[in-house]
Amino acid sequence: MKSILAFLLTIQVKNFQNPILKQLLAKLTRLQIDWAEVQIKLDYIVITNPELKTTYDNFKLLLEKQDITLPKIGLNGKVLTRSADPGEPDKETREITNIAVTILKDKNPPEKSKELLGDLYDELETKFE
């Protein structure tokens, strides 16, 4: 899930708007999400858009080094969660998926990312220095 957060932060920083984001959205809105397919699509987007790679890699590395929780990044109450059925992903995974869907559905994904993930960006930005 940290790779999705890293990607959402990257599109914010790089002001990345591209029709390919709708393909990623389609993978995240399926009833049964195939996480391997999602990761393949993320990797494809980053590889085919080299201006994203360094920023994405930096965010991913920073996120992997930290324990990021949703309350810490100020997301509670901003995005509705799906109901949980036995065998479904945990609450945090569902929340991050819903945040991703909300951002990618928006007419301006970079701005929506800034709105929903601004606190996380501010926290991580200090670690880039």
Q: Strand share of the residues?
A: under 5%
Number of E-state strands: 0
Poorly predicted tracts of residues: 76-87
Could you give a short account of the major beta sheet?
none
Shape: globular
Order of helices and strands: HHHHHH
**How many H/I helical runs?**
6
Oligomer state equals single chain
Q: Briefly note the structural class of the backbone.
A: mainly alpha
Tally of structural domains: 1
Gap from first CA to last CA:
24 Å
- Relative helix content: 55-70%
The overall pLDDT average reads: 82
**Rg, alpha carbons:** 14 Å
Chain-wise SSE layout:
Layout (H helix, E strand, L loop, with lengths): L1 H12 L6 H9 L6 H14 L1 H16 L25 H15 L3 H20 L1
Helix pairs in contact: 1-4, 1-6, 2-3, 2-5, 5-6
Q: What's the gist of this structure?
A:
The protein is mainly α and 129 residues long. It has one domain.
Give an overview of the whole structure.
With 129 residues, this protein is mostly helical. It has one domain (2-128). The protein is 67% helix and 0% strand. It is built from 6 helices and no strands. α1 packs across α4, α1 crosses α6 (109-128) and α5 crosses α6. Residues 76-87 have low confidence and may be disordered.
